Amino acid sequence: MSHSAASRTSSAGQYPAFLGPSELGTKDWDDYYTTEQQNALSESSVIGDDDLSALPTWFQDVNAPRKILDFLLSTHFPLSPNYKGNEPRESPIVLDVGTGNGRTLFQLRDGRTGESDSESDADSDVDEEFITVDESVEMSSAGVASTISEQSSQGYKGPLYGADYSASSISLAKALGARCSSYKDIHFHTMDVLADHPDSISWWPRSQDGSALKLFDLILDKGTFDAISLAQHPAPGSPTAHPSTIYPRRVGQLLRPGGFLLVTSCNWTEDEIIAWFTSHQPDTASSEREQSRINRGTSTFPVFEVFDKIDFPTFIFGGKAGAGVASVCFRRAK
Q: Cβ of 234: how many Cβ atoms within 10 Å?
């Protein structure tokens, strides 16, 4: 269960207090994904809905993958192909940071969560009740209803990109994508979001004549910021800055103004995620001139606004509420 936001807010600044280093922040995932590829490719030769739901994913224990996809495919999310609002519905360019096995992008293309109705019904039965663990622990069902109907929805038709710093992750995602014709146009590439810059990346989407780099309309983060928050070493190129202070700015610079960033975390509360992505403090490698620009509102730092949140079951312990997972959708204001 996540701690309360107040207990981890640093008195020294607007950012929450740093987390202690952990293996998850430094682990080499290549061996893990190599094993996953061996396991996945030993199964059936064609990926179907059942195969997708069986692929390992983060936050599965709280049904986060389905809730995230329901949100992205809902009728109220402006970039959804099922959107019912007045904004133009052009096919967005999507980047999945820390894509892993690529499952989320496969399901976005399909327009389905990849879970069976029986699994969904079972989850609903649990979510619709208060579950008393003991006299001081309860689980609330507030906001856990699905945001999309039981009918088949349209999937994302525009360019989909998956990036991961693990080469074995990309190899696995490409191998899985190659086994289904509808996934073959999904792009998977190795990338370190903290160190690599678009102008030096050959696969980065460009304008039709190739003269200009494109920015993404939607960026997904499902645990990448968690791992970066647990890092033991400074950010690349910023020897005195913690990677978690660099990441919001770096990922924001990959997103077009008006674009959306969806961050899902099991280490930070909603309030803490919001603080990390809306506290526009320059890292220690930034100049006083940049700080002055921030104060005047003329900074080139990306500015995020909270667009929406995905609700998860809330546990109440000792009079304080918390959740195992938090998911916040930001819109880049400028």
A: 17
Complete DSSP assignment for 64-108: HHHHHHHHHTSSSSTTSTT--SSS--PPPPEEEET-TTSHHHHHH
Scored b (16 or more CB within 10 A) or e, 271-310 reads bbbbbbbbebebbeebeeebeebbeeeebebbbbeeebeb
Q: For residue range 42-92, list pLDDT tens digits in order.
A: 655 444 444 565 666 666 666 888 999 999 999 999 999 999 887 666 799
> What does 187-198 look like in DSSP terms, one character per residue?
EEEE--TTT--G
Mean pLDDT of 318-322: 64
End-to-end CA separation in angstroms for the chain: 34
Q: Is the pLDDT of residue 125 over 90?
A: no
Question: Contact, 72 vs 108, CB < 8 A?
Answer: yes
**Residue 188 pairs with which residues in a beta bridge?**
162
Q: CA–CA separation, 259 vs 217, rounded Å?
A: 5
Cβ atoms of 160 and 216 closer than 8 Å: no
> How far apart are the C-alpha atoms of 13 and 208, rounded to whole Å?
44
Question: What pLDDT sits at residue 190?
Answer: 95
Partner residues linked to 164 by β-bridges: 190
The model's pTM: 0.77
Please write the tens of the pLDDT for every residue from 296-309.
444 456 889 999 99
- What is the 8-class DSSP label of residue 315? E
